[in-house]
Amino acid sequence: MNLFGLLDQAADRFGDRGAVFCGERELHTWSSLRERALRMSSTLGPPGTRIAVASENRPEIVELMFATWAAECVVVPINYKLHPREMVQILDDAGVSQVFASPKIGAELTSATEVPVETVDSEAYSARVSSSPRERPRVTDPATLAWLFYTSGTTGRSKGAMLTHRNLMAMTVSHLADFDSPDHNCSLVHGAPMSHGSGLYIPPYVLRGARQVIPSSAAFEPDEFLDLCEHHPGCSAFLAPTMVQRLVQTGRSRPHNLRTIVYGGGPMYVDSLKKAMAAFGPIFVQLYGQGEAPMTITGLRRADHVEADDAVLGSVGYARSGVDVAVLRDDDTPAAVGEIGEIVCRGDVVMAGYWNNTEATRKTLQDGWLRTGDMGSFDERGFLTLRDRSKDVVISGGSNIYPREVEEILLEHPGVYEAGVVGAPDEEWGEVVVAFIVGSASPAELDAHLLERIARFKRPKRYEYIDELPKNSYGKVLKRDLRDRLGR
Ligand code: AMP
């Protein structure tokens, strides 16, 4: 089993139909996409080689993924919003041999790493897609690694969730069974980053011959997105909750070709969801997943949103096809209905472990279960509601930010004695980062200090100055106390 088989099937069936579009413009048919992927693939290898893709949303990402899989290599998508320093950490951790980058990211990255960086507009890249094509892969073990999904670690270091061909195939089948049934008259419009959720959805839509539409701005611009959903047939998209809100704020009504919006990856407030449904109708699907069980733990289907009460709309739904989900007490016994415990899941979608990190793998995969680090409870109808996260993470606009990482950098500033970072609820972003500071450094100084070291989106939106951080008798900072001060 090889994910390349999905493209192969689409090319056999829909050969001369449009496959990849930049905005409204057709770039490749399914046949030419397969051809390009196989030609590019012949320049990659040997099997197991890690190949990074560091780019805003661009059409080349689609061919790069399938080329990498055809060569039985591993794609390492990198969030383009990271600081080059953070990107290099991932390249080093994953032992990447080759980076394919957009011109913009390539320019920033080349001087920061010794790993070869090739931009997708270069002659070298064109030469690869003109090489002789590789034979199609025949027998790939489904346990072969396909994707290293990097998430920020609680310790500040990124961890690579190892996703195999089997994992992504299970995700694909579950998506087609539960959420969406596209065909060759449909389109996947890439609004969210293709290095994460939107890219993970490439396989199910490719299998059905649905167009891959990449906005020409390479970003998420609500009006452009809605225009594309007027132009292309049968559109679906994965969007972070903040993006859904931005669509609603345009005041526009649903483009007639927009069929499905899958939202998730972070909390969506019930009120925002109701506004979105009032604006666009019952086209929404919710997923709850994480890098370690990509896009697939629980979900709410389109029909579940219709005439649903607030408890259902505020939940993350019920177990996805092929996934077992349970809530466990501290002693690992199952929690009763309504009782909060840690959410665990198992199934073919669950990662093989963390790359080169047996300690983290041991803590996260236990007795066949993935410990999600999320706390939640089931109601008597089987709907799961997230209550808290046992991992100390802030999710802002769909991006995960680990407070510890920001605190460590803040503490490097000579004008900071103590720093405590928490998330505060926010109408637009879901949560925003707030830093409590004991010290004399000004917000402008701290901003400048952080911008040199970590990604812009991790920067606190607000600084609160206090005399001392609240601590328990062991000296541990009481984060809950800090959150309470923000009215959370
Ligand atoms: P990531 O690994 O970056 O995809 O982040 C996964 C985390 O995002 C999960 O462990 C949850 O804490 C959170 N998350 C994902 N989906 C949802 C959702 N539908 N509602 C609330 N939080 C979510």
Word description of this protein:
By secondary structure, the chain is an alpha/beta fold. The protein folds into two domains: 4-378, 3-Layer(aba) Sandwich (Rossmann fold); 394-485, GMP Synthetase, Chain A, domain 3 (2-Layer Sandwich), CATH 3.30.300. 31% of the residues lie in helices and 29% in strands. The chain is built from 18 helices and 25 strands. The strands form six sheets. It has a nine-stranded mixed β-sheet with strand order 2-1-10-9-11-12-13-14-15. Strands 16, 17, 18, 19 and 20 form a five-stranded antiparallel β-sheet that branches. The chain has a four-stranded parallel β-sheet with strand order 4-3-5-6, sandwiched between helices. A hairpin with a 3-residue loop joins strand 23 (416-426) and strand 24 (430-439). Helix 1 (4-14) packs antiparallel against helix 2 (30-41), helix 2 (30-41) packs across helix 3 (60-70) and helix 11 packs across helix 12. It starts with a helix and ends with a helix. 50% of the residues are buried. Bound molecules: adenosine monophosphate (AMP). Adenosine monophosphate is lined by residues 151, 264-267, 286, 288-291, 316, 372, 374, 386, 389, 395, 400. Adenosine monophosphate binds at residues 151, 264-267, 286, 288-291, 316, 372, 374, 386, 389, 395, 400. Pfam families: AMP-binding, AMP-binding_C. It comes from Mycolicibacterium rhodesiae (strain NBB3) (Mycobacterium rhodesiae). Residues 405-476 form the AMP-binding enzyme C-terminal domain.
